[in-house]
Structure formats: C-alpha cells, structure tokens
Amino acid sequence: MPSFDDSPAPSLSDEALVAAMAERHDAATVAFVRRYQRRVYGLARALVNDAGVAEEIAQESLVKAWRYASTYDPRRASVERWVLTITRRVAIDYLRRRRADPRDPVEFLNVAVASSDVPFDERVEHGDLRDRLQAALLDLPEEQRRAVVLASLHGRTAAEVADLEGIPLGTSKTRIRNGLLKLRAHPLLEKEPQ
Question: Tens digits of per-residue pLDDT, 5-25?
C-alpha cells in the first residue's frame, strides 16, 4: 500500500482508506466518512423512517467502522457491503430496543380499546368482543397465552418469542400454533350467524 501521506485521501481505493483508517490517519477517516455518509444515512433512514434517529444510527455506524477498521477483511466483503452491514445491524439493534416491553394480555386489550378512535356506542358493542377475547385468552395455558400475545399482539416472530421465553424455536412455534388453534375453536369466539 502506498504511504497515506504520499497520496490524497479522496483518490485512495476503499480498501486503502480503511487500512489508513485502521492506522488512525485523520484524513483517511474524514475521506471515508465523506465517501459513505450518504449511503449509510440513506440505509438508516430507510430502515427506521425517522430522520433524527437515522442521523444517530449513521453516526454510530461510522464510529464503529472507524473503531473496527483493523478487522476489515476484503476477502469477506467489499468495503461498501461491510459498512452497510454495520449500519443495518445498528439499525436493527435500535429497532429491537425501541419495541415496547410485552404487556399482560388483559392490560393490552384494555389500552387498545380505550385508545381507539371508535365512537363510544361502537366501543360498547366491541367491548363485548374484547371481554370474550380476554376470557378466551385467560383459558389458554400460561405458556401458550404468552406466546400468542407476543406473536399476535406485539408482532414478535417465533424466534423472538423463543429468545424471550428461553425455549427452543420449535417449542415456540408449537405454542403459538396450538394457542391460536384453541382461540379459533373457543366457544366464546365463534362467529355469530348474520
């Protein structure tokens, strides 16, 4: 690699920039940030759909690229793919942290109905459905109820439910499936003839 001091940073290849960044050359870091800041920010913005948060994610991603520049291996990925993978991981970590903690099924249903924009008379009519759903959920075994609430009401994947509950993925899928089947067959939730 040519000496960093012998060539201007903007003309260096991506790999040479990362190598110079690993040696903590300030000009290489500035050139790297200028070269990738728009792509990193664009990916972060697409993933989180919030300009302010995307700026934070972009900054954290570029700092991580700087911090771990010495670990970059050109045989594994291009520099662009490497820095965008870092960005994607930072954004996913942010989205995971942002998710609300799971609530008790009863509390979740009460908040969902209370915060809706549905007129009061329709809420009274739907209140009966809420009460029936609440009763049906409470009839499920605890493990199935938690799995169904996490998956259906909180949008968690079976893998995330498995991680949260500390169980194997297959067990998580089985609990979700069996819980949903029991809810569908529950007499309180049978569809009324119209």
Answer: 444 556 789 999 999 999 999
